[in-house]
Amino acid sequence: MTSYSTNNEGTFIPASQRPDGTWRRARRVKDGYVPQEEVPLYESKGRQFAQRKANALPPGLCPEVVEAARREREKKEKAKAKKEAAAAANKKQPIPGVLKLPANTITETKKPIANGQKPKAPVAAPSTSSDPKSVEDLSENLASNLKVQDETQDLQKKCKKLQKKLREIDEIEKKLKSGALKKPEKDQLDKVARKGAIEKELQQVLAQISSES
User: Fold this and answer.
1) Where is this region: Disordered (predicted)?
2) CA 6 to CA 9: how far, in whole Å?
3) What tens digit of pLDDT does each residue of 62-71 get?
4) Cα–Cα distance for residue pair 148/211, rounded to 1 Å
5) Residues 6+ apart with CB under 8 A from 107
């Protein structure tokens, strides 16, 4: 806070020393001058109204009633805290070395055997083991089914290859008839010559597929 000195010449700020050792000269100020650090902060009317509203009581409410309600609330909170502390102090502590079982644990006691009464023999569980012969038959059937599936897949692949060759031969024949292919290569002529054999082989493959399915 800035200190002021007053003499017969008026009010002035006395000289002061800077951190680097140099001195500031004394400055004369006008009467009623307020330094910047002492000027109160500006507050808008809306903020002033909000502060007054927060500190004010609802219209028609007596301050004595509010004070009595506050005291009653504090009294109840203290009583509740005291009750909880007493309950925690009276809570039973577990005894060291003693195992505490859950409440829903059921202990089964064995009944004594009467004189002359024989204990019941344990009933043997029915055997769930399967017949070895049936297991072997099942495995053989499974293996044969897998083999048939593999053979069928191979025949289907072969059928697709033969059909592709026939389509290529048909394309070559169309080009030869239309004159688009004037000088066919040797491989193309060999394919056309083997058309009958490929058709016969395709019929045999289709017959095998139909017989297995």
Assistant:
1) 1-22, 70-138
2) 8
3) 777 778 888 8
4) 11
5) none
Bridge partners (DSSP) of residue 131 are: none
- Distance, CA of 119 to CA of 123 (rounded, Å): 12
Q: Are 27 and 10 in contact (CB under 8 A)?
A: no
Which strand (E) or helix (H) includes residue 24?
Answer: strand 23-24
Query: Contact at 8 Å (CB) between 159 and 199?
Result: no
The closest of 148, 130, 146, 163 to 208, measured between CA atoms, is 148
pLDDT digits (tens, 9 = 90+) for 28-64: 877 777 777 777 888 888 888 887 776 666 666 677 7
Q: Locate all alpha helices (DSSP H) within the chain, ordered by sequence.
A: 45-55, 63-90, 132-178, 186-193, 195-212
Query: Distance between alpha carbon 15 and the CA centroid of its chain, in Å?
Result: 70
Among the listed residues 156, 146, 145, the one whose alpha carbon sits nearest the alpha carbon of residue 210 = 156
User: Is 100 in contact with 94 (CB distance < 8 Å)?
Assistant: yes
8 Å CB contact between 16 and 5? no
Is this structure's pTM higher than 0.90? Answer: no
